[in-house]
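Sat 14:20. Reprocessing the chain from the morning session after the first attempt stalled halfway. Input below, unchanged.
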Amino acid sequence: MTDLHYRSLSDVCRRIKSGELSARQVTQAMLTRIDRLEPELGAYTRVTAEQALSDAERLDGERASGKPLGLLHGVPVAVKDLFFTRGVVTASGTRVMADFTPDEDATAVVRLKSAGAVIIGKTKLWEGAFGVHHPDVRAPLNPWSSRHWTGGSSSGSAVATAAGLAFGALGSDTGGSIRFPCASCALVGIKPTYGRVSRYGAFPLAETLDHVGPMTRSVEDAARMLQVLAGPDPKDPTALSDSVPNYAASLSGRRADGLAGLTIGVDWAYVSSGVEETVVNTVREALAVFRELGAAVREVAMPRSAAALIDGWSITCGVECARNHAPFYPGRRLDYGLALASLIEIGRAASTADYEALEAVRRAFRSEFDHLLETVDVLITPCMPGLPPALAAIESSAASDGQGASFLTFTAPFNYSGHPAIVLPAGFAASGLPCAFQLVGRRLAEPTLLQAGFAYEQAQGGATHPDL
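Finished this time. Tokens:
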């Protein structure tokens, strides 16, 4: 099967369960592709080949013995290197944690393994999940255009998935870190409702903003991974106790024209202010597809309080980040890159009043946005204000002042509020760069986002892959 690496996670899992493929065969094929392309693309911080093959053989034995098989049985997936992996270094993109080897797995990793996933490696990320890669780290290359941004902080997870070096990957999102790389690399990404997926064992950037979610090449694959990841966790006091619906089953047999009754909200002032025309047109074209699928479109007004959250994100993130890095900073200041050090300094300088003022705005925005979602089912927005920027431009900006507030316009408000969002690939611009848009839903309304995304994906004809 020459195109095995670009088959969907769901398709490969079904073939392994049927016996058409073996987990070892698939894992070995993926490792062979990694050997060929990883030296150029640089998605991984480490590939766990020996353990992956051992796990694959064990999973094949479980199938042969008739044991129940999980939703990810035998499929190689990648894990962002801030999720603890027992016995495997978890450096979080930093120098200060370069030798940290956890003695347990993060809850998300436990759940991937329990569902039969083969963990094939740990992927690169921005230093501490913020701003830019550590100066010691060679940044991954976007498989669609090596001269353009991969997005971040889950850069390696995106490159591995888009390039066919994994069938899906685990990411985290504090201000757009799942959504930016998925938009930049033509992937589906989900930032779930805050607390829907446990954060236990994920080294935090900012606990009240951090979300854990899947990065995949299709909506069905995202639904499968989210199904596995979601649920209560006594180790994480912020994990929600609500029961988990069957995300994957909700897509089964769904007609591509089945969005009658869905209402999509759009705030054209929010969508277009400071946004490249190509991105605005992507939203317009997506809405045209949704209308053809039976959805209604209603104009709404984004709460004005969002602006304060966008501007203040670095304070909230900085205060919480400074607490998390207190064991290392400022004692090991020289081991930090400029971007992360600058964020920590913002947090150290911020007053309690500054932080609490933003918490009050967070509460107001959450309430106002909940009210908006009483009138529509989902809100459509861009993910980024432009197409993936040139590497030189984005890295220069990140190194000088962290993430600019304008870049967080469509992402940060929903990290504050905890509402779920899905990013969907939407074809390509004339330049060949990926286009994307975002849908944001009510809290715990991931099924609605997945169903809308699945209908859109089916209408568009499915995934496109880079020629590598």
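The two ends are 16 Å apart (CA to CA).
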